[in-house]
Design goal:
Helices cover about 40% and strands about 15% of the residues. The chain has about 210 residues and is an alpha/beta fold.
Length: about 210
């Protein structure tokens, strides 16, 4: 049976609307890795040429790993500008995941080689930026720029977690990328946490299994 084609609803409607209000460099911003028990949160900011045609561009969660990897290279090649920033597990534990996410998003926008003057942010809350911004709930499935940012953030973080799988074998990071799967929790119970685990995220596990705290 042929694979079902995933329809994409992403467009440049939000980007064009911002331009109609006088903004000239509109970036999409998204993150990957808010929920995992280990590793960093990664954010990306992307400015695409308006109406740039990238076949298959969509919310990164709706794409296969192979498709994300292919789009990763195409987005970087065709973007007017892009930047990726990450905040590690230690800072997440120190300032909490929301603030860490906002820090990564702000850093990504700040590091664009072509400065943006307007940001489309995936979600319902935005970081403090020096430019105007707009939140779009489910924006990674609506805005082409946010979809592109979601792919850069997701692929960057997944690659990092595969590297960590080699550094800290036994946890299965290459597969679950740090998310709280049953296998991952069992690995924590068996081996204890490793240096990239978010201690603040392990509290519920520790409360349920005190023997896992080491």
């Amino acid at each position: 049976m042929p694979k079902k084609k995933i329809e994409s609803a992403v467009s440049f409607d939000y980007e064009r609307a911002a331009q109609s209000r006088g903004f000239s460099a509109v970036c999409g911003v998204d993150e990957a890795g808010r929920g995992p028990l280990a590793g960093p949160v990664v954010a990306a900011a992307v400015i695409l040429p308006i109406d740039c045609q990238i076949e298959g561009l969509n919310d990164s969660k709706k794409l296969s790993e192979k498709k994300r990897e292919a789009l990763f290279d195409e987005i970087r090649a065709r973007a007017v500008s892009y930047a990726v920033a990450s905040v590690d597990h230690a800072v997440i534990d120190e300032i909490n995941i929301l603030r860490a996410t906002f820090r990564a998003m702000a850093q990504a926008v700040m590091h664009l080689s072509v400065p943006a003057d307007y940001a489309l942010i995936d979600g319902n809350r935005a970081p403090a930026l020096d430019i105007a911004s707009e939140c779009i709930v489910g924006g990674d499935a609506k805005s082409a720029s946010i979809a592109a940012a979601s792919i850069l953030a997701k692929v960057t973080r997944d690659r990092y977690m595969r590297e960590m799988d080699a550094k800290y074998p036994g946890y299965g990071f290459a597969g679950h990328k740090g998310y709280g799967t049953r296998a991952h929790i069992q690995a924590i119970l068996q081996h204890g946490p490793c240096p990239i685990h978010r201690q603040s995220f392990l509290k519920k596990i520790y409360d349920k299994y005190p023997e896992a705290r080491r």
